[in-house]
Amino acid sequence: MRSVRLDPDLDDRVQRAAEAENSTISEFVRAALAERADRALAGHESAATQLADVIGVVHGGGGRARRTGRAFAEGLADKRKRA
After folding, report:
1. Rg (CA), the chain
2. How confident is the model over 18-73, as pLDDT tens digits?
3. What is the number of other CB atoms lying within 10 angstroms of the CB of residue 63?
4. Smallest Cα–Cα separation from 14: which of 40, 32, 39, 35?
5. Quick check: 28 and 21 in contact, CB under 8 A?
6. Are 6 and 14 in contact (CB under 8 A)?
C-alpha cells in the first residue's frame, strides 16, 4: 500500500481526468502509474527480452550474406592488383 500527496492543482486535474474517463480516482491513478512504470522499465529491458516474441520467427536462409567474407577478400585482392 502506498500513499501519495498531491498539490491542489494536480489533485484537481486528476479528479477531473478520472471523471472524464468515467473512472474512480483510485482506478485512474493505478492505471496512470502502471503505464508510467511500464514505459520506464521498457528502456531497461535487454534487447532479447524486448524482441523475445519475434526472435527465431524469421528464417532468412542466408543468400548473399553468406558470401560477404569471400566477396570482401576478392574486392581487396582486386584493389591490390590495380595498385
Report:
1. 27
2. 999 999 999 999 999 999 998 888 877 777 777 888 887 776 666 666 777 788 88
3. 7
4. 32
5. yes
6. yes
Rama region for 62: left / alpha / beta (φ>0; ψ in -120 to 50; rest): left
Q: In this predicted structure, what is the pLDDT of residue 70?
A: 81
Amino acid 62: pLDDT: 65
Q: Is the pLDDT of residue 1 over 90?
A: no
Distance of CA 10 to the CA centre of its chain: 29
**What's the CA gap between 66 and 69, in Å, rounded?**
8
Cα distances from 15 to residues 20, 26, 35, in angstroms, run 9, 10, 18
C-alpha grid cell for residue 20? 472524464
**Helices 8-20 and 25-42, axial angle in degrees (round to 10):** 100
DSSP per residue, 18-43: HHHTT--HHHHHHHHHHHHHHHHHHT
